[in-house]
């Protein structure tokens, strides 16, 4: 037998075969309402509670209504389902809302399940995104069900006005938009009213949470400090508190900022412990005090508070009103509580605190725009956002007797077991039953499942040689499409190499570079030289660590039509396209990091003083435009950023293949280090000729130094820490993003001293004595302090290096 829990949760005492889905539950989210609908109908069907009943009325075409109607259609033999919706469209709250974000598992954060962006339902499935996109995706699937099953009807603009018991059945009375009345007899009724209408505050405008106009925007008033009031301590109020307090509010990006913060793992256990403590202590638990005690010290040291503080609106006074005495209330999500806590403490940090006004709010007898809290003195606001939750009791106006019978019993049921207050999950038996029913009904495979299946079918590209001079290409993937496997590969790729690396000449480097960095690519070749060739460029690379060779195997495909290509031209085009891809990705990451100081991927994780960061951003904008218009300059910059060897030294294949997605993090760090260093110098820019890939000039344009900026981890196969000081750098200044300790000269002086014709020892600046700047603790401190500290750090590094060489010269002379 299947568990009766979903049935017990929905059953109305004294009203057999009338079920209430989710209206008075905790944690009412779009996803949880779908799950409640699926679980309930499955439990009813599997436990044969419905018997031979086949005519069903579903009141409400929201998340729960569409899920319940779909499950009845699929799981109950002979079912005829009528869904009644008083609005013009199903999912009317979500269908036109672009600015609100829906995430199926956000209530589960910080648990691991919250990382999944997909609801994972067998039917009416969706992925995190705007409410309008989610609604459109679900309606496509529901429309498919209607077309194939033809036993589900959605009656729009039909408001159910009464449910009348007639023997063992129910007569559902309804009225259309023109006032015409109708009724029909049903064996069971599912009340899927869901959230209900939002509660209004008399004397205040009501802008629905699900309306884009209901999202707090920036100030629209002439005076200096407008006042914005957000009233309501539930999740809607907490989210709108964020929107009112933060510049350029983007809910999705705010979630990503906090949940992907580099140090957030230090908070997760503490947050879960606080939630457990709150459950034990019950009503009145002070979350703000608990957060100050448990996570406040971490937040004050990891930089997140400062980042939030930088994003606060400076010209808005935000007032937050809750009916109870506490800022944070139970039955809100952990993430939303954390966001509100961060806002309050960040606003105090910048001495522009958010004002908390506890107590019941009223506008009775006051002029428009004026309010009173807890009977206190009236105050005026420029804008107000009312988030007092759904008017659940009012939503049951036509069904008062059902509500009065159900609500107190359901409250007792919830309190009997704390687990029942948690967000529900789809029962595995329900999932399996729905999947089987969809197959039996011969429903088309849902688009997402079809995409998943198609994604498993590999595509094919073949490269070979015919005759002494004909390089040929075949398969269903053209060269210009290969970068899909650097971006978001939807299907595996078989890359068939029909000739050896020497036979393909320069094209081998381009093909190898693509394959080394691509995802879901299998290289197929019968020529054993390819294995050694890829090994030499990857795990045997003298320049970088952890570069993996692509998955390789023998040729498995049959022949295909081939056409001749110009190998040298194609190689040049492929390298240019890959360099362009790298520049775009570099720009996306740098723009985010230099604008906000944060980065979801945590590739840099250096805290940079805001003014210095802003100057770096402006400089990057200039460099980026120059690089976009000069392919050779861009290619050279990337090659030298990938390794410590100048272009003129040997075959450059081993460094050119390093420029790709696997090396993007180190190249981002290299560019950040270069931009920060450049702010300490009068003029600097990318350099197109040897040595180095950047140059430093004075205010008059005279060249002062050549700079080699590199993200190399190895030099000549040894760690950069061991080799940096001894390497024969050709540029005068060396910036090493992967060097996290000072570079010591040691015996390098022996190789860098020479004698002129008079036998006087001199410093050979072409071989040693370079200014080496790494990402050590001193640099980190300078970045945190700003431009002046950065300039001082570089000057001090240069003087220290000069002093080391002077001392070595003196010791050499004394020894002579």
Low-confidence stretches: 745-768
The figure for the number of domains is 4
- Oligomeric status of the shown chains? single chain
- Strand residue percentage: 15-25%
Largest sheet: 6 strands, mixed
Q: Provide mean pLDDT, rounded.
A: 87
* CA-CA gap between termini: 96 Å
The CATH first-level class of the largest domain comes to: Alpha Beta
Identify the CATH architecture of the largest domain. 3-Layer(bba) Sandwich
Radius of gyration: 33 Å
- Order of strands, main sheet, comes to 1-2-11-3-4-7
Shape: globular
The name CATH uses for the topology of the largest domain is FAD/NAD(P)-binding domain
Q: Quickly give the structural class.
A: alpha/beta
Protein name: ABC-three component system protein
Domain ABC-three component systems C-terminal: 470-794
InterPro entries: ABC-3C_CTD2, FAD/NAD-bd_sf
Q: Could you describe the 3D structure shown?
A:
There is one protein chain. The protein has 816 residues and is an alpha/beta fold. It has four domains: 5-195 and 393-448, FAD/NAD(P)-binding domain (3-Layer(bba) Sandwich); 212-389, no CATH class; 457-564, no CATH class; 571-815, no CATH class. It contains 27 helices and 33 strands. The strands form nine sheets. It has a six-stranded mixed beta sheet. A hairpin with a 5-residue loop joins strand 26 (694-697) and strand 27 (703-710). Helix 7 (265-281) runs antiparallel to helix 8 (287-294), helix 19 (567-596) runs antiparallel to helix 20 and helix 19 crosses helix 23. The chain is globular. The termini are far apart. Residues 745-768 have low confidence and may be disordered. It comes from Phenylobacterium conjunctum. This is ABC-three component system protein. Residues 470-794 form the ABC-three component systems C-terminal domain. InterPro entries: ABC-3C_CTD2, FAD/NAD-bd_sf.
């Amino acid at each position: 037998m299947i568990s009766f829990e979903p049935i017990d949760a929905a059953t109305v005492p004294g009203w057999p075969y009338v079920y209430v889905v989710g209206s008075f539950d905790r944690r009412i989210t779009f996803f949880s309402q779908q799950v409640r609908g699926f679980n309930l109908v499955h439990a009813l069907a599997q436990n044969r509670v419905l018997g031979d009943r086949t005519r069903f009325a579903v009141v409400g075409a929201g998340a729960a209504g569409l899920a319940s109607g779909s499950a009845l259609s699929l799981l109950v033999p002979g079912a005829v389902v009528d869904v009644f919706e008083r609005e013009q469209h199903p999912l009317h709250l979500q269908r036109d809302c672009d600015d609100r974000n829906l995430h199926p598992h956000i209530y589960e954060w910080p648990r691991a399940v919250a990382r999944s962006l997909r609801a994972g339902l067998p039917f009416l499935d969706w992925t995190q995104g705007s409410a309008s996109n989610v609604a459109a995706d679900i309606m496509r699937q529901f429309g498919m069900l209607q077309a194939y099953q033809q036993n589900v009807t959605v009656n729009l603009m039909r408001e159910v006005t009464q449910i009348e018991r007639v023997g063992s059945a129910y007569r559902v009375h309804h009225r259309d938009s023109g006032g015409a009345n109708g009724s029909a007899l049903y064996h069971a009724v599912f009340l899927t009213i869901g959230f209900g209408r939002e509660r209004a505050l008399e004397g205040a405008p009501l802008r629905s949470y699900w309306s884009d106009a209901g999202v707090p925007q920036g100030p629209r008033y002439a005076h200096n400090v407008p006042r914005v009031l957000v009233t309501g301590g539930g999740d809607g109020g907490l989210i709108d508190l964020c929107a009112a307090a933060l510049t350029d509010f983007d809910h999705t990006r705010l979630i990503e900022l906090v949940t992907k913060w580099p140090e957030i793992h230090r908070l997760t256990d503490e947050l879960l412990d606080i939630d457990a403590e709150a459950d034990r202590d019950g009503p009145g638990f002070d979350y703000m005090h608990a957060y100050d005690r448990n996570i406040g010290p971490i937040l004050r040291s990891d930089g997140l508070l400062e980042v939030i503080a930088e994003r606060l609106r400076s010209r808005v006074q935000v007032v937050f009103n809750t009916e109870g005495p506490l800022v944070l209330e139970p039955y809100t999500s952990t993430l939303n509580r954390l966001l509100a806590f961060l806002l309050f403490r960040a606003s105090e940090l910048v001495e522009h605190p958010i004002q908390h006004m506890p107590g019941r709010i009223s506008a009775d007898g006051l002029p428009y725009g004026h309010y009173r809290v807890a009977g206190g003195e009236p105050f005026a606001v420029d804008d107000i956002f009312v988030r007092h939750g759904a008017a659940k009791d009012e939503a049951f106006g036509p069904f008062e007797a059902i509500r009065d019978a159900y609500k107190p019993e359901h409250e007792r049921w919830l309190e009997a077991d704390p687990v029942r207050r948690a967000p529900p999950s789809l029962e595995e038996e329900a999932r399996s039953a729905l999947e089987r029913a969809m197959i039996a009904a011969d429903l088309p495979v849902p688009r997402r499942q079809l995409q998943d299946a198609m994604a498993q079918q590999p595509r094919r590209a073949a490269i070979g040689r015919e005759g002494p001079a004909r390089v040929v290409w075949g398969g269903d993937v053209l060269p210009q499409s290969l970068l899909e496997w650097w971006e978001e590969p939807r299907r595996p790729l078989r890359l068939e190499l029909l000739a050896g690396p020497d036979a393909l000449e320069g094209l081998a480097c381009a093909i190898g570079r693509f394959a080394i960095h691509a995802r879901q690519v299998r290289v197929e070749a019968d020529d054993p030289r390819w294995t050694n060739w890829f090994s030499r460029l990857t795990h045997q690379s003298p320049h970088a660590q952890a570069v993996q060779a692509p998955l390789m195997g023998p040729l498995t495909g049959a022949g295909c039509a081939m056409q001749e290509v110009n190998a040298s031209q194609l190689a040049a085009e492929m390298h240019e396209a890959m360099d362009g891809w790298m520049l775009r990705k570099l720009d996306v990451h740098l723009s985010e990091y230099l604008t906000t100081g944060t980065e979801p991927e945590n590739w840099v994780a250096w805290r940079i003083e805001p003014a210095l960061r802003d100057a770096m951003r402006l400089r990057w904008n200039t460099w980026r435009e120059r690089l976009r218009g000069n392919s050779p300059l861009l290619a050279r910059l990337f090659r030298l950023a990938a390794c410590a060897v100048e272009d003129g030294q040997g075959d450059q294949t081993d460094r050119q293949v390093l420029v790709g997605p696997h090396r993007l993090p180190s190249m981002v760090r290299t560019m950040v280090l270069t931009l920060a260093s450049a702010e300490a110098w009068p003029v600097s820019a990318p350099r197109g000729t040897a040595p180095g890939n950047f140059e430093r000039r004075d205010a008059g344009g005279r060249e002062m130094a050549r700079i080699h900026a590199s993200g190399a981890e190895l030099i000549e196969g040894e760690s950069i820490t061991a080799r940096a000081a001894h390497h024969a750098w050709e540029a005068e200044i060396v910036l090493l993003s992967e060097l996290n300790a000072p570079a010591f000269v040691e015996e390098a002086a022996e190789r860098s001293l020479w004698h002129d014709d008079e036998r006087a020892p001199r410093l050979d600046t072409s071989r040693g004595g370079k200014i080496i700047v790494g990402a050590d603790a001193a640099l980190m401190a300078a970045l945190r302090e700003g431009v002046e500290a950065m300039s001082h750090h570089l000057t001090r590094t240069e003087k220290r290096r000069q002093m080391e060489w002077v001392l070595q010269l003196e010791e050499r002379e004394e020894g002579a």
